[in-house]
Amino acid sequence: MKRINHKKYCFDLMCMKNIQNIKTIHTFLKPPNNEPNYKIKNYKRSILQCKNCHHFFAKHKINTDNLYKKNYSTISHGTNIKLKFDKINKLGKKSDNFHRVERFIKFFNKKDKKKIDMIDIGSGMGIFLYNLKKKVKWRLNGLEPDLNFANFCKKNLKLKIINKHFKKKLFKNKKYDIISLNKVAEHVKNPFKFINDIKSLLKTNGSIYIEVPDGIAALRSKQGVSREEFFLDHLHIFSIQSFSNLLIKCGFKILRIRNIKEKSGKYTLYAFAKKNV
Length: 277
Ligand SMILES: [Zn+2]
Hints:
Blueprint: E1 22-28, E2 45-50, E3 56-60, H1 65-69, H2 72-77, H3 81-90, H4 96-108, E4 117-121, H5 127-133, E5 139-143, H6 147-157, E6 161-162, E7 176-182, H7 191-199, E8 202-213, H8 215-220, E9 236-237, H9 240-249, E10 252-261, E11 267-275
Bound molecules: zinc ion (ZN).
Zinc ion is lined by residues 10, 12, 15, 50, 52-53, 55.
């Protein structure tokens, strides 16, 4: 783990518009090994990188919205969500989620204090909320577009889940103290707009916790661009610079930002940030 001075980096998530700043890292003509089989007919996609802030972008004509409509949970996690859930949960300290919950609790350090309203955007099969619920007395909610995941969380885990795609207006005037986004921002077309919208759902002193894939560490590794960080469902893969830029540009004050290698082997960047008002 390295301490990072985020202030010195460029501020330029719009770099994809300036073609001279962009280089092609790799073009896939078929899916890399181990990528879930999304059954795409004309599989051609490129990974581009900004020479300035080192952010990675996916370039292709594949409609990734379709991945999430019906069967993302089934393709990515198999038909039996409960089996997968139990398997990960049984890993205990060997799971990524265990450590996510630990750093979360340590960072916020007010588990028994006043009621905190929190929402996990993209709550998936609910592992994070389920384990967090055991440790805090906060009001926990999830937002998850996948129907199978949402139903599993509601029925099996007794979690409060909104089964919808993220839209700002969905929340009307509801505001949160904490919003978490675990491996979500890389899936959206415009992370700047997305994180900006997320910010508007925070209370005045609200905080966010975000995890995104670390493209720099992934590219440096032995498997390089064939790794999961660069799979089809990721439209953006971050560098510390581009991740910082995104948060600062969206009006956040970064409280902590780190690069880690998770137990699963994933290269990840995470940040805690406060609404900078
Ligand atoms: Zn850039």
